[in-house]
Amino acid sequence: MSWVQQLRANEAICNRAPSAHNTQPWRPEYHADRIVIDVDAARSLPDSDPTGRDLALGIGAFVETCLIVSAELGLSVAAAPGPQLIPAANRYRTPFTIADVEARRVARGPYEPGYVDADVIADLEPGIAHVPTRDLAPDLEVADRWMFGTPPVAVELRDWLRLSPRHPRYHLDGLTDRALALSRSEAWALSAALRAYRVTRRLGLAALLAASGRGLLRYDGSVLVLLADGDDRIAAGRRLLRTWLTLARHGLAVHPLSQLLDCPATAARLAERVGGQPLAVFRVGHPLAEPVRSARRM
Ligand SMILES: Cc1cc2nc3c(=O)[nH]c(=O)nc-3n(C[C@H](O)[C@H](O)[C@H](O)COP(=O)(O)O)c2cc1C
């Protein structure tokens, strides 16, 4: 088997890469001696991610995941602009393994109080800022209200929610009730509210839903911010994945809060606070409950 065929045979592991709303927007095109990582436009989020920031980060995370998988398979593969995977002289050097890729998962439930240790932060690649959770709690409420109160953004989220196991795509993609750590009644209420979005929006749904996330950052914990280092968003996505895997090696889970970057007002305040261009924002800590494994197309 060629290296392309071997990596293709392990596509299901590469698909464990994270992506916003679990859209899995990558579309690998397998050629004889290279793999071009194309974007599936139907899996982009034009309303919630108009600049394509999260799309590029997800593609970058997929590229990095493919490289980790290829290294463990003993294949000499490198990433090249495109992005694409091409043959290389040596195996990709990475401390991470297929087991790390398989074990990685976002955790959205409550976390134990406590800040991330300075030596853990020192173990991360440069370009990470630390903000205490409580400092961002008011802005998270503003961002949630913006998200649920902006019809195209809320509708796009609704389209990727799979709030009941009866949803035909429950095991394939999107965000399930279990992945979102919702109780059965919370899932039912969210589903009903979003189904009748036009009406409930007028009734103050945005404020209601924003209020439900109010407690999320009201504990003493850490939020980390991935800062841009140049314009290469694919490289940033690769760094994001390595950052999450390094944190996982320290026993720490992450929970992205991209609405803080999507909402123009809170994005501007966060950029000012960290003195750079934030590309990803996530709380970090020890979850109180084991997070579930998210769905994938294969
Ligand atoms: C660039 C990016 C942005 C994300 N933003 C959010 C977010 O705002 N809120 C959230 O709960 N999860 C967010 N996620 C996490 C994805 O929803 C998650 O990766 C996906 O559902 C697959 O789940 P898993 O990472 O547990 O495998 C983001 C992931 C990426 C890569």
Mind explaining what this structure looks like?
One of its GO terms (molecular function) is oxidoreductase activity. This is Nitroreductase. The protein has 298 residues and is of the alpha+beta class. The protein has two domains: 3-103; 118-285, NADH Oxidase. The chain is built from 13 helices and ten strands. It has helices at 3-9, 11-14, 53-72, 98-103, 118-122, 133-149, 151-160, 184-195, 197-202, 205-212, 233-249, 259-262, 264-274; strands at 26-30, 35-39, 77-80, 84-87, 128-132, 161-162, 175-176, 222-227, 253-256, 278-285. The strands form three sheets. It has a four-stranded antiparallel beta sheet with strand order 1-2-4-3, covered by helices on one side. Strand 3 and strand 4 form a beta hairpin. It is globular. The two termini are 21 Å apart. The mean pLDDT is 94. Bound molecules: flavin mononucleotide.
